Amino acid sequence: MAETLFEELKRYVGFEPEDEQALRSLHGLAQPHFAAIAEVFYARILEHEGASKALEGESQVGHLKVTLRTWMEQLLRGPWNEDYFHLRCRIGRIHVRISLPQHYMFGAMNVLRQEFLRIIDLESGGSPAELRAMRRALGKILDLELAIMLHTYREDLLAQQARSERLSTFGQLVGSIGHELRNPLGVIETSLYILKGRPLASDERASKHLERIGEQINLANRIVTDLLDMIRDRPLKREPMRLEEVWKDALTSVQAPGGVSIREEGLAALPTLEGDPGQMRQVFVNLLENAVQAVGEVGTVTLSATQGSKEVELVLEDSGPGVCEAIQSRLFEPLMTTKARGIGLGLPLVKRILERHGGSIIYVSREGRGACFIMKLPLGSASKGMA
Ligand code: HEM
Which domains does the chain have, with CATH numbers? Predict the structure, then answer.
């Protein structure tokens, strides 16, 4: 059987059965200190603004202290097999997902190294040869850990490269196809208009089909507009913007089954913002269409608005199944879609429009509950990309 990456790495650093033995002995020494090591580890993260940004709060630190202790158990007890490797890759991917800068990974691993070495130095019981073997084995396993973490970052980088190549080809293609489609669509639209004025239109079935053709032309035009908007930013207007009005206007474009209730709270109390009401309407329409589709025949879609000191926060929740974890991190990427219809431009456009208003949008995962998007828009004048 071909050698696995982990086997190759172990062979590279010369990780032998005697290292495994030395790590198990180190486990005996270090285990009583695991809780203290975890304290030092996370205290150091919290002292550094860039690293602590990756944490979501004190409760997460509590949880991580526990997971770090399990990590130390496995580090020193093994077995250092393929399951170990895959478990470590999983942790690496979590760090990639939270965008942990790589230099903190090295810094943090060094903190762990110092703590373990300190424990070995304090030990008076073992022979110098045993202690030396522990230091050597510790060096090997911690560097293997770093190698695995770097491996997951590289995986992510390659995936990103593939994605950006796909997008640049996509951009060029879209530009030309979009323009080319506008012309035939325009001709079909004009011909439809002429046909609607003819006696044919009084035939009930024919008129139904003419209606249907019209709807499909609108749909095709909308897709072309979305595509073109994605590759060239439409200039933003700078106008007084009442989100309550924008929301009401957006609702007129969204068709929801009778069992779906769409509610909002707090919009009337918001101050007038500055921005492009037309493009913000698009934000609401795209989000509402997704939410209504996710909810199905019966459910709720709720927008709650609150005003902070510098920004307005809008939370859109629905009672659908939520977005699965595998998709969440790529939700705002173009061409990312799970639907049979649609090409995955709705959310990227939403994000782009909000960012050009100086705002933001994130997806918040809520175990066992529907989708939840949190949008922020600045209270001051929206400036980025304004016409
Ligand atoms: C290099 C040494 C590090 C080790 C050994 C380590 C270990 C771990 C482990 C075992 C987990 C839990 C994975 C799971 O849930 O299965 C984890 C998650 C996490 N780590 Fe690290 N970590 C390291 C560095 C850092 C640093 C420097 C930060 C900076 C803030 C950090 C932030 C986090 C966060 C936020 C999560 C949780 C993500 C989530 O559950 O959503 N880690 N790490």
Answer: 1-232 (1.10.490.10), 239-378 (3.30.565.10)
